[in-house]
Amino acid sequence: MNDQHDLEQFAANLQQEVISRASLEDQEEFLGDAFTRIMIDYLADAGELDDGEVCFHKTRGIEVSGYHLSDDEDVLDLFVSIFNQTAPPVSVTRTDFETYLKRLTSFFKHALDGYHSQLEEASPVCDMAARIHEARTKLDKIRFFVFTDGVTKAEVKPPSDLHGLRPSVHIWDIERLFRCISSGRRRETIEIDFVSEFGEAIPCLEVPSDGTDYHAYLAIIPGSILFKLYDQYGPRLLELNVRSFLQARGKVNKGIRDTIIKEPDRFLAYNNGITVTASEVKIQTLDDGGKGIAWVRDFQVVNGGQTTASIYHTARKDNADPGAVHVQAKLSVIAPERIDEIVPLISRYANSQNKVNDADFSANDPFHVQLEELSRTVWAPAADGTQRQTRWFYERARGQYLDAKGRAQTPARKREFTAVHPNSQKFTKTDLAKFENTWDQLPHKVSYGAQKNFREFTIRLSQRRNLHVDQQYFERLVAKAILFRRAEKIVSAQEFGGYRANIVTYTLAYLSHRTGQRIDLEQIWRKQDITPALDTAITQVCRKVHKTITNPPGGRNVTEWCKRDQCWEKVRSLEVRFPDELKSVLVSTTRTTRKKAILKDELTKEDIRNIKMVTEVPADVWFELSRWAKQTDNLEPHQRGIAYTLGRVVGQGKEPSRKQAWSGVRILEEAKRLGFQPTAEGQTS
Questions:
Q1: How far from chain centre, in Å, is Cα 337?
Q2: Angle, nearest 10°, between helix axes 471-493 and 366-375?
Q3: pLDDT at position 601
Q4: Distance in angstroms (rounded) separating the CA atoms of residues 431 and 474
Q5: Cβ atoms 174, 84 nearer than 8 A
Q6: What three-state secondary structure class fits 44?
Q7: 353 three-class SS
Q8: What is this structure's pTM?
Q9: Domain with CATH 3.40.91 in the chain
Q10: Helices and strands counted in the chain (H then E)
Q11: 3-182: CATH class
C-alpha cells in the first residue's frame, strides 16, 4: 500500500469512528462534537494536550468547539473543528482556517469581557466563558487549536492584540494526525538544534559505550535553555510516565522554588539533575577541543520533571532568573527500534527514589496487557436472538482498533472484522477508568475529565493488591461498560440540554451506592443489555441528579461544582424510591442459617472502641458482608477473609485479636462507603 492509500483508509476509518461515537440524534453538531472529542483524545495521548472538554457554541461571528484550562490557570487551550465528513479527505484553504480562527479569537475576546453574562445560566458554554473570564488575570499563554478531517498546507499567523497574552496557533489536519498515529510513537518527534536556537552547543563528556545498546553523555544545561524548551514544548518535553506523575501530584516543588529564588548559585549542588533520552544526537568539537551536543532528536526528560517544570513556573510566577541556575544532565541515546522498550525502564528506575508506583507507568502495565489479551479471546453472548457472537475490543494504545481493521486485506475481511468487533464495542483506557471510577462511586473524579480521571484510576490501581485480571473481571468490566453506555442514551433522551457526562456518572454512582454495588453484572453480561427495571431506575435517578448538580450552592460554576466532594455528598443523600422490580436485578446476599454474636475484649481505649464497634455487628452480617464483597468484587481478598473470620469469631463467642478488630472497623467503613446494606434478617433490632 502507498502512503496516499493508507491516509485515505485512515480518514475513512476515522469518519466511521466519529459516526459510531456520535449521539443517536444524527445532527451535524453531534458529529462535530464526536470529532472534537476524538481529536482531543488522540492529542492527549500524544502529549500535545493535557486534556480537553468538548463544548460547542456558535453564533454570529463566534464559534468554539471546546477548551482546557491548565491547573495553574496560566495556559488556555481553545479548540475549533472544521469537520467536512468526507473521505477521501478534501483540501482546506488558508481562507477557511483564517475564518475559523477569527471566530475562535472572537469568542476568546468576548469571554474575557464577560460574555458569560449574556449566555443561558447553568449551561456548559456559560461555564466555559465564565471560567475564562475568572482566569483572565492569571493567563499567560493562549493556544488556538484548529482541527480538521481535511488536508492543508496552510500556515496561519497567531492573532494580535490579546491583552499582552502570548498566542500560538496549532493546525491539526488529517494528514498530520495520521503521521502522528502511524509512527507508532503517538507523538510528534521533538528535534532541538542547540546551535541555531540557543547560539551554542551544550558541552558534554562522552561515556565509553563498550558495545552496549546505548550511548551516554554527561552535561551541564543552563536553566535558561530548559526554561525556553519547556516554554516551547510544555509537557511534551516530559516522557509520558513522568508527565502523568507530575499531573497527578502537582507541578512545583517548594524546595526547588526556594533554591532558585534564594540560592541559585547552589542549585547545581543541591539538585540531583535530570535524566534525558534521545534517539539521535550530533556531536561537534568545541573551540577548546572538547565535545558539545549540537543537535538532538526525540528529546525526552524521563526523570527530573519536577526540576524542569519548577524552573519554568518559578521564572514565570516569581520573576526568577532561570539563567542563574545550571542543571546536570545524563543523556542516553537509544536506537529508535529499541526506544519503546528501554525508555520506560529508564524512567521507572530513574524515578524509583521519588516513590513513583509501578502502576504510574501504565503504558505497558501487566494489567492493561492482560486486559487486552482477554478482549481478543473472550466472546460475548449473542444478544439479538441470533447465534452471532461478538467481542469487546480494548484499545490499550489508541489506534489499535484501526490498525487491526486495516490489516484485513480484502473488503470481505474488513466486514468480517467489523461484524466481530463492532465499533460500538470498542473501549479505551480512559473509558475503562470512567467505568470503574463511576462504579466505585467517585463521580467527582470522573468529572475532572478523561485524562485526569485516568490518572486517578492509575493511582488507585497501584494500591489494589491481588487484583486478578481474569475472564470474570473482564466480563464484569464489560457489564459496567454496557450499563454506562445505556445510561448515556437514557440521559440523552431526557433532553436536559447539557452536562450529560456529569449526570451519567453521578446517576450510576448513586445506583452503585444505594444498591451496595449489588446490581447483577453477570446478568447484564449474559443479556448484553440492562433490564427495563434498571432502565426505569436510571431514568428516575438522573432526573433528580440533574436538578441537584445544576443548582450548586452560591451560584457556583456547574462544571467546577461537579468536581467537588461536596457535590457527591449532596447527590448521595438524595432519596429516590425505586420500582419493586429492581430487586430482580440485584445480587442476593441472604442466607438461611443464622448465628448469634457476643464479643468482648480489653486493651487500649482505641482497642476497646474498635472491638465495641465490631461486637455490635451480628455474625450473619459479617458473613453477608463477606459474600457481598466477593459477589461484587469489592475489598481485597484478605479483607473478605477477615470479615468471614469475624463472623465465625462472633458466632462462637470468642474474642477477636486487636488486629482483627482494627481491620474489622476499616472493613465496615469501606463497605459502608460503597453502599453495603445488610438485609433485614441480618440487622440487629
A1: 28
A2: 80
A3: 35
A4: 14
A5: no
A6: helix
A7: helix
A8: 0.72
A9: 3-182
A10: 28, 15
A11: alpha beta
